[in-house]
Amino acid sequence: MDYITTVLVKNGLVVAFLVTGVVTYCSEYLSRVLTNKKIPGSAIAIFTGLVLAYIGGMVTGGTKGIADIQQLSGFELMGGAMFRDFAIVSTAMGASFGIIKKTGLAGIVSLFVGVILSFTVGAIIAVAMGYQDAASITTIGAGACTFVVGPVTGTAVGASSEVVAISIAAGVVKSILVTIGTPFVARFIGLNNPQAAMIYGGLMGTTSGVAAGLAATDPKLVPYGAMTATFYTGLGCLLCPSILYILVKLCFNS
Amino acid sequence: MLIRGVALLAACFIIGQLSGETLGRILHIDANVGGVGFAMLLLILAQNWLEQRGRFHQEMEEGVMFWSKMYIPVIVAMSAIQNVRVALSSGLVALLAGIIPVLVCLAVMPLLSKLSPKAA
């Protein structure tokens, strides 16, 4: 029976295509039959992905979700940063430059508001939970931005690895929440046009969460939200270990 | 030709990533600063430029659209490799710091929307 595993591992990427295809097909079916298409199939598929990741983590104790199961290791390539970014860029095809220019200012403002607000709230939570040194508070605040900004900041300000892990976890929780929550809140916050999507992306950051959430809401909005969201990570990596860290240090002289 | 579209996408992607990495180095941050964003802007500009010269073929667009349609499956795969177990088990701080900022930002969203011109 070993040869079956060998074949699956050798053709990892193709196996990942197959499994993802089956998951997507089943999700479309469930969306149609159980929810009368009220919950989009893509949202169910993405949620199923997260459940698979949890199962993978429980079974193997690893950190890469379902990809830690040897036969499904191809998921690491298919779901990795390269394919993700390549596919995100392709969604820009057909996006209107005019709309982007028109939203420009609001998009930029939302970026700054998003980073500073998330950081501040995250830092306040860190203080409330008993952290008192500037490096830890800053790192957890940065983790509230995204799971990339957290560790980048933590490394820059010299936080402990435990705090860095917490900041990554906070960023992952945020990404999951945005992924699942976007289709549900879309109606209430007017998330139905490119301008709103750009502001949403700038406010939330977390490219993966925003892109997945918008994909489940309305695929046409993905390029706009994803574009501002990618700049969020850059801005967060810029502001958190510098200006925001200095401000935290002034408040908590350690 | 289909491959021309894919190659155009690849060119924009690589140039964008290189710009992001370069910007990161200049700013002394060990991260890619907006690489994907630059690549997307490049693709939009390239498309406009080619269209104006009448050199943008249907098949080129299809080469890019294939990847655009593969987007959701790739995201499904991406969610399947997240460290969900640790995110759920690494404590209250992570949960709170992940959830509350999102709620606060959501509350601000309608205010910011007023800044932008209404959709036509």
Give structural notes:
The complex is a heterodimer of chains A (254) and B (120). With 254 residues, chain A is mainly α. Chain A has helices at residues 2-10, 12-35, 41-60, 75-78, 81-90, 97-128, 134-143, 149-157, 161-185, 194-204, 207-217, 222-251. Chain A is built from 12 helices and no strands. The radius of gyration of chain A is 20 Å and the shape is globular. Chain A starts with a helix and ends with a helix. The model of chain A has no long low-confidence stretch (mean pLDDT 84). Chain B is an all-alpha fold and 120 residues long. Chain B folds into 2 domains: 2-82, no CATH class; 83-120. Chain B is built from 6 helices and no strands. The longest helix of chain B has 25 residues, at 2-26. Chain B is extended. The two termini of chain B are 35 Å apart. The model of chain B has no long low-confidence stretch (mean pLDDT 82). The chains are: A mainly alpha (254), B mainly alpha (120). The interface between A and B is large, with 115 and 78 residues.
Question: How many domains make up the 3D coordinates of chain A?
Answer: 2
Biggest interface: chains and residue counts? A-B, 115 and 78 residues
Q: Rg of chain B from C-alpha positions?
A: 20 Å
Shape of chain A: globular
What is the string of SSEs of chain A from the N terminus onward?
HHHHHHHHHHHH
Compute the separation of the termini of chain B in Å: 35 Å
Q: What summary fits the major beta sheet of chain A?
A: none
Which class best fits the helix and strand makeup of chain B?
mainly alpha
**Number of DSSP helical runs of chain B:** 6
